[in-house]
Structure formats: structure tokens, C-alpha cells
Amino acid sequence: MSIAFISHPDCILHEMGPGHPENPERLKAIE
Fold first, then answer.
1. What is the pTM of this model?
2. Range 1-31 burial, b when 16+ CB lie within 10 A, else e
């Protein structure tokens, strides 16, 4: 299985709201 991770620095600026699994801290952790 292949996985692609595509990101841009602006993605860190996108706030989904409290408790949402996709948050800036998670993006920083997997980069």
C-alpha cells in the first residue's frame, strides 16, 4: 500500500475547531 502526504505551510493556519482530529499540532507531528 502506498501513502502520499502532500502539505503546504498554509495548512498549519487552518483551524478546524476544538476536538477535531485534523489540527495544526497533528500536522506538525507527522511532518
1. 0.44
2. eeeeeeeeeeeeeeeeeeeeeebeeeeeeee
* Helical ranges in the chain per DSSP H: 24-30
Length of the chain: 31
pLDDT by position in tens, the chain (length 31): 998 888 888 888 888 888 888 778 887 888 7
Say which residues have a Cβ less than 8 Å from residue 30's Cβ, sequence separation at least 6: 5
- In the numeric block, which cell numbers belong to residue 12? 498549519
Residue boundaries of the structural domains of the chain: 1-31
